Amino acid sequence: MLGRMEELNGRPVRSEELRSLALTNYGHFTTLRVEGGRVRGLRLHVERLVRDCRVVFGAELDPGRLLGYLRRAVPADGGAAVIRATVFDPALDIGHIGCNAVPAVLVTARPAGGLELPPIRVRSVEFVRDLPEVKSVGLFGALHERRLAQRDGFDDVLFVDGRAAVSEGATWNIGFVRGAEVVWPEAKSLPGTTMQLLRQFRRCGKERVTLGQLDEFDAAFATNAAIGVRPISAVDGVEFAVDHPMVAELGKAFTGLPRDLL
């Protein structure tokens, strides 16, 4: 059975090396679901980390070295795990954040949960993450909104921009179903790996979706690498069919996606 592990650049991490991550909290990450030593969309995860490292640090990240670190976290028994690769510089601090960076890779792993999860009911809020195209470690704003929503009885939060256009959830992408068509919002958001893989689905489109248009859709769903496809039962007061066949088909499409050997 997989235990939890934490390694920095392929060796056990020392507590003092996490000080920058805890206090400065500047970096980026990706999360992979590994099953039987294989990952859906492995290339997309690696490309994300390399691209975001250039954006966040102005530095190059070696894909081969990165893959070597990730392989160390694969469960020996072939079980399912959620592996997170966080890229940060242990030497950077708030007062000298402009220094040349030497990014390091922190790999953590934990057992993965199941993919058949109950529907969620979410509340919308006007919020745009910093650099929405980057999966950054600075999650305070997003998690604060999630906390407020959960304290008010919702399961999670959905972000909209200043023109009420739907963008993304706190840690997931959102898609909608209209008839036989899958629609992804075009507002600025993280290009999630699961969303990118499912956009190859034969009936997918992308368009601006506002809160006022939600009742035009039959179903809605959340996606990320850890959960796959999860039905959304309602956004604010707009309810959706949680047993829509297209959402079920998308879930099957996700589980049937080819997985790359890590």
Automatic annotation (TrEMBL):
GO terms for molecular function: transaminase activity. Transmembrane segments: none annotated. The keyword Transcription regulation does not apply. Signal peptide: none annotated. It comes from the Bacteria. Pfam families: Aminotran_4. Keywords: Aminotransferase, Transferase. This is Aminotransferase class IV family protein. It comes from Kitasatospora kazusensis. The lineage of its organism: Bacteria, Bacillati, Actinomycetota, Actinomycetes, Kitasatosporales.
